[in-house]
Request: fold
Amino acid sequence: MILRSITLRRTANLSATLLMGGATLLVLLPLIIIFYHIVKMGISSISLDFFTQIPKPTGEAGGGMANGIAGSAIMIGMASLVGLPIGIFGAVYLTEYGTGKLATAIRFCADVLSGIPSIITGMVAYSMLVVPLKGFSALAGSFALSLIMIPIVLRTTEEQLKMVPATLREASLALGVPLWRTSIKVTLRSALTGVITGVLLAIARVAGETAPLLFTALGNQFWSKKLTEPMAALPLQIFNFAISPYEDWHRLAWAGALVLVVLMFGLSLAARWLGRSKHS
Amino acid sequence: MFSTIRKTVLTLALLASVCVAGQASAETLINGAGATFPYPLYSKWFSEYAKIDTSVKFNYQSIGSGGGIKQITAGTVDFGASDKFLSDAELKAAPGKLLHIPTVMGAVVVTYNLPGVHKGLKLRSSDVADIFLGKITKWNDKRIADDNPGVKLPNESIIVVHRSDGSGTTSIFTDYLSSVNQEWHGKVGKGASVNWPIGLGGKGNEGVAGQIKNTKNSIGYVELAYAFENKLPYATLMNKNGKFVEPSIKTTSAAAAGAVKHMPADYRVSLVNQPGDDAYPIVGFTWLVVYEHQKDAVKGKKLVEFLNWELHKGQKMAAGMLYAPLPAPVVKMVEKTIKTIKH
Reply:
């Protein structure tokens, strides 16, 4: 009787473990398939040219996506310049100053903003900047990207700041340090690694965005010389090349996808590493 | 640590903006957007032209014909491109007079997936319309079988695939169906996106091609270049003169030969179902759309220079990329039109 019960328990345990292990594998499977497929299709087209040349018209060998990589970097950089300070200081306000209804309203708005489909962000930037200024531009693209970054940075930073012990703030305030200085020099500083993790994740998120750039940065097959002109971006080039009928453009698109995925993977890993080193 | 990082970021950003600003030069950038169909050829032209005139760069983005019309009307681009000519209402909506400049011609092919049947299935235009209307439902229908003696057609249902997105290709194809079939004309009509009576939708040429590759007994339509590059089988269609014609550069050009005599001054003309023994029936122009009065003198001058180059030297690159060059009489007409652009 006792023996059978143990066997039964073991069997139940084993089958549950197998079931959950299988479920975990199923979760991982899409990621593995995507990664495997992109590496398989893209690796052969990755060369030095890919990082140093601009795209060549179909039928000509070679060519790369250097302008797209640079364009993405510039626009993400400009979006960060605007989006990160607003997001981080907004979060400081929420945790250190914000009380009552206003803070709740801001949090609610940030959540709504982060839920807005990115194509709509692009349309807003189009109607606010592109149409009045009579032209597509890198500036409009950066504006759209910064709108996506702000709520992500705001909420992750806020979570990190909440984890800073109240005693730290109290100690600083007791020493006569004003609240604004305490917020920046003590609270924000203690939460810094977590904040940077959030920032990296926000950058990884916008790096792959195509929709908000379609009607703002538009894309450029050459190097852009001004921020007020259309600019190339890696996701845009992947999109354009992937839907073309030409094999060599498909190969470039796969290579671009590989670079983008590796970049995002790297950023996520960096974010993880930073997040972990804080606790060790 | 925070201030160090902040300083680094700020310095980098400052450096980046200085670099970008420092690159600014006298070079002119002319922006255009629109049709996807001529994008490969245009990107070739603009890449070649950048070597000829180094003081100007043409940036062309393929956002679709509808998008091209919208953006040139809004004045956010310097030129638009479309596979569908603007309606009178669309022309009126623009803040200035818009000119259509035909650049090349393209063909749309009927492609299919029939195990054991390679390219060259013969189809009458009225039968194509009936298939897309859902009136011919089996591959071994007598009307198809009669035109294809010796071809083993399966007793299977025909699966129709069409574009789900608005497209110039659909515009040309439905224009063709409307002109060969009264019922289609009355019930469905023509346009960049129509209310299809039957069938599955695919996004873009690649979406339609993908669906057809994966679905046995299916039929759909894609651009000529797309079918050639991807080695899709395509049908031989009966034209207005009752001859079966294979799609090619030659038969595409032949379609324009008939239309040349009645070419309107604004080039807003349909090329489907044209007379001529060699004329392939599903053919259309693709146009650049520009303002007659160019606001920016420098850009206007460069644009006119490019149009003249494209009209002569550029035409020679078309056939290699499966676009049909303009017939000589049309080139003569367009020369004059380009002269009317004021800058």
